[in-house]
Amino acid sequence: MKKALILSVMVIFSLFAVSSAFGAAKCPQPRKTKTAPGGIAKKDMTAKADAANGEAIYMKKAKPMACKMCHGAKGDGGGKLGKALKPAPRNFACAATMKKVSAGQMFYIIKNGSKGTGMVAHGKTLKDEGIWDVVKYIRSTWVK
What we know:
Layout: H1 2-21, H2 51-61, H3 68-71, H4 95-98, H5 103-112, H6 128-141
């Protein structure tokens, strides 16, 4: 009886661990997002940005909702709301995907949203400086 109980607990734990591993977005993530217009994709203002403020915005201050709600606290696309989105939210922890996404492209998408995805525009609620702060936080935390 004791062995059966231990075995049952181990099976349940294993299933939980496996399901958690698949909660995050896959890597690499294919996307057909349009390139930001003009020279915006090549722009990078992260040198003067504040990663600590970017973290505060990412984790709780962004409106209409915090970035982590979709992208996850680990930046892996495994946020609570992100699990229902198709395509899955961007997985910032995926180097194979993120090496192709410039800081300027990230800025543009955060500001204007991304058509065909669940990514909403934050340009009306965040100033450009705040968006650059978020870009710096993401790139300094997950994009290596």
